Structures are given as structure tokens and as C-alpha cells.
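Sample entry was shown:
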Amino acid sequence: MNAVFLIARILFALIFLLSAMGHMTNAAAMAGYAKFKGAPGGKAGVIASGVTMGLGAIMVLLGIYGDLGALLVFATLIPVSFFMHAYWKVSDAQAKQMDRTNFNKNIGLMGGALALFLLFAVTNANLGLTITGPLFHLS
């Protein structure tokens, strides 16, 4: 069970770690794209979302207050989904389909983040292979 939980955390965190690295290494280009999509914050917003998703992913991966890390990932996905993948605003059919796919993927990842939050908080991280227990304790 411990190994399965660790593998799940690695697989979940990987997409956010890679995205966070992209946010940090290509912040200027991403800021231009964010502006094109109508997202607020410019380069600072790109960096903030990169830091938030990266930190959350590391917390989930390592099991350092994994419940809080899962909430950070969830919170980052909300504005990213609605600003960057607002497919209902796109007129080009191909671009609309890409945004719809990414929006739907993010909705699924939000569900996964909430499930991980609950798993950490309810089990008190008794699934093993974590550095700390959860910040929140639910029963």
C-alpha cells in the first residue's frame, strides 16, 4: 500500500513539477501568452502560479503536509483553467478543441487534488512514505 501511494503521488506531482519549471524558465514568453488569453498578473502571475503549483507538487510528492500541497495545486488550477483554457471564448475550432481538452484535464486534476487532500487529511498520512503528517485532520 505504501509503495502504491508513493507511485500515485509521483505520477500526480510530475505534471505540476514540469509545468512549474516551464513557468520559471519561460516566464516572459508565458506572460505574453497569458496577456493574449486575458489572464491578469503578467509575468508576476506566471511566476506566482509556477511557484504555487511547484511548491504544492513538492509537498504532495515528499509527503510534507501533503494535504496542504494538494490544496495549493487545486487552488492554482482554478484561475489557470478559467483564464488560460476558456474554450467558450475561442472561435477557431482547433484552438477551441485544445482549450476544451486542457480545461477538462484541469477539472480532472482538480478532482484528483481534492481526493489527495482528503486521503492525506483523513488517514493522517498513515499510508507511509511521508515526511510529515497532514496539516488538517478530518475524520
User: Anything to note?
Assistant: The two ends are 20 Å apart (CA to CA). The chain has five helices and no strands. The helical segments are 2-25, 27-37, 42-62, 66-84, 93-123. The chain has one domain: 2-123.
